[in-house]
Amino acid sequence: MKNSKVLKGYLLLAGLLLSFIGASTLLMPVEMKATGGMDIAGEVGILNDVRASSALLLSMAILAISGVFSQKLTYTSSLVSAILFLALGSGRLISIIADGMPAEGLLGATFIEFLFGIAGIIFFLIYREKK
């Protein structure tokens, strides 16, 4: 990947956002899901699933931020970050179509995920090394 402050800024911002969401939901799943209008208190299976996916988000955050500091990881972290955000947004869109409209906060999350995903793909295509 070409050395770019714009790409590194994107990776840092994406990594910080994923870190915040991943760590907060991993440590406080009931409170975080309540902000989206969900009551998962006492639902052990759902809590387990939420914590597991939150740990995945946190690990992807570490990968994204690693791409800022390691030129060897920039390619991987930029591609994975973009795909992750597009996957999250796509999953929410499928849920909206299949299940109906969620709380307003989740609609905002969908927009942000698509925004970060599309921006990530654009930055990836601009700053990759063409062979």
Describe this structure in words.
By secondary structure, the protein is mainly alpha-helical. The protein has one domain. The chain has five helices and no strands. Helix 1 crosses helix 4.
Shape category: globular
Ends distance: 11 Å
Number of helices: 5
Radius of gyration from CA coordinates: 16 Å
Low-confidence stretches: none
The helix/strand series, from N terminus to C terminus, equals HHHHH
Oligomer: single chain
Number of domains: 1
Count of β-strands: 0
Mean pLDDT: 96
Structural class: mainly alpha
Helix content: over 70%
Strand content: under 5%
Biggest sheet details: none
Concise overview:
The chain is mostly helical.
Structural descriptors:
about 130 residues; mainly alpha; 5 helices; about 80% helix
Write the layout of secondary structure elements.
Blueprint: H1 5-27, H2 29-34, H3 44-69, H4 71-99, H5 104-127
